[in-house]
Amino acid sequence: MGGVCRDVRTREVGIQEIHHKVRPYQVELVRRDYVANEGWETFLSYEDPEQDILIGLLRLRRCSPQSFRPELKGGVSIVRELHVYGSVVPVSSRDPSKFQHQGFGMMLMEEAERIAQEEHGSGKLAVISGVGTRNYYRKMGYVLEGPYMVKLLQ
User: Fold this and answer.
1) In the CATH scheme, what architecture does the domain 8-152 have?
2) Domain ranges in the chain?
3) Is pLDDT above 90 for 118?
4) pTM score, two decimals?
């Protein structure tokens, strides 16, 4: 016993600030690739590896040709999850002492688009998006297609 817990919740920047009064010092993009459910996934994150603090994450998957959703057929990758952690900052507001609305989500999406196009050979990227976040994706050039926000990659 006596191991260190490394799950997402305990590593979140907001939790670290509240409970340990620790802030990230050296933030970098970290990539982890792995096999999941008979497919390939890429886990992208912005974190401070030295202090083990997680600022934001994105899970990217190359869709299977056997996908049952028509929106996900024919060379499509999908963002299954995107989160930027920290204290809540209202939409259209900025607080330089917080991590939300500082561009981490946008940078994660840009890297996901690059990987989808260059490494997956995908012509389209889909995002599982709730109604409340659709305008965020629209600002990046995504449009609604079925239940997904999608962008054609060039």
Assistant:
1) 3-Layer(aba) Sandwich (3.40)
2) 8-152
3) yes
4) 0.80
